[in-house]
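User: I'm putting together a teaching handout on how multi-component assemblies are represented. Below are the sequence lines for each component of a complex, exactly as they appear in our records. Could you produce the 3D structure of the whole assembly as structure tokens, so the students can see both representations side by side? Please keep the chain order the same as the input.
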Amino acid sequence: MSERHSPDSAYAVRVTGVSKRYGETVVLRDVSLEVRRGEVVVLLGRSGSGKTTLLRCINGLTSVDGGEIWVDGRSVTMRGENLPELRRHVGMVFQSFNLFPHRSVVSNVMEGPRTVLHRPRAESRAKAMELLARVGLADKADAKPATLSGGQQQRVAIVRALAMQPSVMLFDEATSALDPELVGEVLSTMQELAEDGMTMIVVTHELAFAEEVGDRVIFMDEGVIVEEGVPSQLLHNAREAVTRKFLSQLEWHKEP
Amino acid sequence: MSEAARFGEIFGHLGFLLTGLLVTLELSAASLVVATLLGMVVGVTRSTKGRWTRVVRLPLSLYVDFFRTTPLLVQLFWIYYVLPVLTGITLNPFDAGVISLGLYEGSYISEIFRGGIAAVDVGQVDAATALGMTPWQVLRRVLLPQAIFMMLPAFGNQFLTLIKDSSLASAISLPELLSQGEALGAMTLYPLEALTVTGVSYMVLTLPLSTVLTLWHRGSLSRGLSQLRRIGGVVETERGMI
Amino acid sequence: MYVWHWGVVWSHLAYLVGGLELTAVITVTSMAIGSALGVGVAGARLSRWWPLRLAVGAYIEFVRGTPFLVQLLWLYYAIPIVTGLNYPSIVAAIAAGSLNIAAYNGELFRAGILAVPSGQQDAALALGMTRWAAFRRVTWPQALRIVLAPLGSTWVGLFKDTSLVSIIAVSELMYRAQTLAINTFRPAELYTAAAVIYFLVTYPQARFLDRTFKRLSVHA
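Assistant: Of course. Below is the structure of the complete assembly, with chains in the same order as your input.
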């Protein structure tokens, strides 16, 4: 039965039979997926496999052509659904950070609580400073994003999303645009988040991270979920040939 | 009479020209206000993807397309000669000028707004939307602040164009600068000299702003900002859905 | 309620639309001459000899800082005085158009040439081309592609500006509409017709140029 809100304590995200096409190209083909509360799910795949599209469908940035998505018991796909309201509970971190360049760092973090949640300025600022301190960037509060390194910007972006106190965090190749030496600091932040119990769906190529932090790994190819499993199994002993081929292309070694 | 003496005669009537210059300034200022407000509303509405804007977007596109592809002179004559016939309201040349220039330049300014908004990195919209902002909030807090900065040169340029276009009001006998210049030429029988001084007067109006714009352009070139951003020339960009 | 009598338009339609002939002639001629001059203007602005740069720069500032109507009227009076002969108004129209376009297009060509990466010229010279050949075969075509879109804009702008030559009694569309409006006492029908005709003729041009240049043009 499709009710708009069906509170479900076990599942944070539920994707059922989702399909999406752009013109002639089918990007998602009957994809189904369930993410438990507190679970960290890693999405792997080539570019064009549909993993980013799937992520964007989960918070409604991209609309679906068929199927249903539920986040925290709220429907994303039903017509007339209040998407801005839903997005308060889903945080997203982008490959290109997308910090607001015309605002200072702390202002960026305050933007959500102020504009969307209508919290008072003092309270928002205090919360923002607290979050920035947690990632060690409190001293950059009044700087403009452009003066920060990529890794610092991305950590600000993570904190900006966290300021909304979401129940689910989506990461779209959060470290792909970073210089190698900056990747670690962002992954550490993500790991801390996971250890604090955040429900996370992470699209990434960082297989070490997937193994270390992920509870479940899903491999997608050409719009379908090819295989999923626990990291130790999928990453070292994948069932499907396609998966194994992909992993070998990433120069991933089989030894656990 | 020597050339210098002829110019002397013209300069003797400088006050006469000056009254025209003041009218040009008034006309330009009033039209600019109308054009900017109109352009902002039209441009922003055409850039928003809400459900309710879909209905109004077609007539707005028609307005912009029509006013940008027909000559200002035709529009001016229409407003001054035809509108009163249809509505019974008589318009004085100044009001007709303001309405006509406002509508004409407004269509161009709306394209500047549209181009400016479209030029903002689409990732900004994604991030703002993902935070839970409504399209209106995204526009107000994230898009417009960034767009306006990029629009300034094109906007300045349009203002210059507006001042020059105001000269067409001479065709409906508004005593603005060109009109006075022509009258002066007829009075003194030295039309060429009168027009030269008129031209120089227009330069006095346009040169300051034109210099500022050139310097800004050079400045931003050296700062490496994107110089061939086609703002105001309309570049359609594909944007993800909100 | 105003009662429209469109008969006035229909009975004079051939005459009205015939005005487009001169509109086209003026536009095409001005564009051709103006563009040719514009290349010279661009060259002058890029030259190492600063008096030339300054002089041409001043000319461009004047053309861009004064209304086209002023330039048109100025030439209308100036040509007979300078040459001592009496030319038909259309000469002034084409002269004004050409000089105007020369300034605007000249600046466009200059911007385009500057936007071509200098590596292109280097590569051409390294292949053994002379400077002139390198310019003609490598730099210029690329410069042109870069500024195609603004060039299209200039064309459309010129086409609309020809309506101003009605003021010096050149018998193009606007002048004919105006004459008819005065003689038939029906400005509403005539000016509306003129607006519609301009739209029907200009809009397709604008769209065509937009589409073609979007496909052909290159971003530096």
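A couple of points students might notice: The interface with chain B takes residues 56, 59, 61-63, 84-88, 90-92, 94, 96, 98-102, 111-112, 115-116, 157, 160-161, 164 of chain A (CB under 8 Å). Chain A has a mean pLDDT of 89.
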